[in-house]
């Protein structure tokens, strides 16, 4: 059974588009955690392309170049 990445994003208020991207057609032949790694890579690309579509209640992608002060000792 194929594994796909589902992406849904806002085009305008009340209007959304979706896309499906094939990750693999043969998941049993993949290395351990390879599907998870690919899924997270695709998710990160999606967030970087349209950061305004994501709720920023966490700090993971809020800071790009600077080291967040809350991580300093």
H/E element sequence: EEH
Q: How does the overall form come out from the CA principal axes? A: flat
Low-confidence stretches: none
- Rg of Cα set: 16 Å
Q: What is the mean pLDDT?
A: 83
- Class by SSE composition: alpha+beta
Helix percentage range = 10-25%
How much of the sequence is in beta strands?
25-35%
* Strand line-up across the major sheet: 1-2
Number of helical segments with 4 or more residues? 1
- Give the tally of β-strands: 2
Main sheet overview = 2 strands, antiparallel
Distance between the termini: 47 Å
Task: Walk me through this protein's architecture.
This protein has 73 residues and is an alpha+beta fold. Helix content is 22%, strand content 27%. A two-stranded antiparallel sheet has the order 1-2. It is flat and about 40 Å long.
Key attributes of the depicted protein:
1 helix, flat, 73 residues
What would you say about this model in short?
The chain is α+β, with helices and mostly antiparallel strands and 73 residues long. Helices cover 22% and strands 27% of the residues. A two-stranded antiparallel sheet has the order 1-2.
Topology readout:
Elements: E1 3-12, E2 15-24, H1 34-49
Antiparallel strand pairs: 1-2
């Amino acid at each position: 059974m194929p594994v796909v990445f589902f992406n849904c994003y806002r085009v305008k208020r009340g209007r959304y588009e979706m896309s499906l991207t094939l990750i693999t057609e043969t998941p049993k032949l993949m290395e351990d955690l390879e599907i998870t790694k690919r899924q997270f890579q695709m998710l990160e690309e999606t967030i970087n392309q349209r950061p305004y579509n994501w709720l920023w209640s966490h700090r993971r992608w809020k800071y790009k170049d600077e080291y967040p002060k809350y991580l300093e000792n």
